[in-house]
Amino acid sequence: MDESVLAKPGDVVDRDREWGLLTEFVTDPDPAMRLGIVSGRRRHGKSYLLQALSERVGGLYVTAVREEGRLPAIQRFSDAIAVHAGLRPGTLRLTDWREVLSNALDVTARSRTPLLVIDESPYLLQHSPEIPGLLQQLYDERQRGSGAGPGARVILCGSAMSVMHELLSGTEPLRGRAVIDLRLGAFDYRAAREFWQIDDPLTALQVHAVLGGAPGYRPVAARPHPNDGLVSWLTRTLLDPGRAVYSRMETEYLLREDPRITQHTLYYDILTAIAQGATTPTRIGAALERQRNAVTHPLDVLESPGYIQREQDILRPRHPVITLADPVIRFNQLITLPQAATVEQGFAEEAWQAAAPTFNSKILGPHFEDLARTFTRRYARTLLPGGLPGPVGTTEVADPVARTKHEVDVIALALGERPQAPRARIALLGEAKATAARRGTGDLQRLERIRTLLAGQGYDTAGTTLALFSLHGFHPDLIESAAGRDDLLLVDLATLYGVGQPPFLSR
After folding, report:
1. Which of 100, 214, 436, 478 is least surrounded, with the fewest CB atoms within 10 Å of its CB?
2. β-pairing, 404-413 with 392-399?
3. DSSP class per residue in 132-191
4. pLDDT (tens digit, 9 = 90+) per residue, 233-261?
5. Contact present, 426 and 457 (Cβ < 8 Å)
6. DSSP-based helix, strand, coil % in the chain, nearest 5
């Protein structure tokens, strides 16, 4: 097929890797049938991407509907097949899913790129659990291929992450038959700023801290635009009960996506406990007056779609720290719920003023630290002497002399090193602060002390770069110091977003 036809459409932002993977899948000339799985949480842009792909190659794209029963779904899919074949709706009277799937594959086979996309497929499985088994049969029957063209390419897509992941697990019919298992994530924070067309990096950071990089929020939360002022934007979107993106409603929608979440009160209580500082299963259970085992499964359920995350210490085996990972859920638990009565009486601005200190300390600060780690993984390779780093995360370093422990916001091992390996080479030690104060030589001295402690514990720090991440810049003496040494990296907000170079490099 002509490469210009397969070029990514201009309205598809980012997703270069994903587009390349999908176009390679659909244009594979192998005459055998091939299967792909695409999953991702709500509003991550799965449907937008697959619709664009289907339009590019002339594929058949059909989406399931949650409220639709088995027979209406069969008829609607039959009509979609008829239209794709150039016939009028109602022409095909198919009676079961084997007929539907077989006809869909036959009709798409007439195209140079025979693609069938079934979006939101978990909705079909609620009333038609036989579909994966039928696809297995069709897959096995079509492995020898027929004709000179490529075989059918089938993509199943869905937002119910647990259902989608289950399709390829254990003894499920489709296990071992998928070429692609693409889990579509949110936009990178830099791509998110570009997508929203936000002028000011600080505003972009604040928007990312409450919405993340999910592109599906822009159509429902772009008016007023964040460029018009954060307070105006927040109080008329996430803090407006009349908006579809009101965080209480959005959190409820997100939790409903997973059919395993049936006891909604329990899951809300767990999220609230985590938001209030419970970071282990034992502490979460205690906050809910339940045994640790009672929250183990719900925590696994919340982790699989990325609503919470467990952060492992990069250097030492410790219990992982559980935190809220989904920005909308975090905003809802920390800001909206405590102020819900005020917000829903129409006093969103007053509620925001009361919640602003919580936002700065419990949302913006941790989020800035998280983006500092993301920057280290994705963009620091051009600034580090050793190039691309290895595993990136956090750690805690004991200081016996001072009788304290130092929390390290950003630590990167050298490429090839394994987490928690003794005497590992450390590529970077960093501190990220979102406070109003500029960072100074005192922050540098603290990092130097931590580097010395780690060297004394047997870690290789000979090539370790020290990095300071600051929301509001650096004192002149620190910038002057950085200009004269090759082991110090200063990253301000402009550098974080790739719209400037580190301050010391501009001198």
Report:
1. 436
2. antiparallel
3. HHHHHHHHHHTSS--SSS---EEEEEES-HHHHHHTTSTT-TTTT-EEEEEE--PPPHHH
4. 999 999 999 999 999 999 999 998 888 88
5. no
6. 45, 15, 40
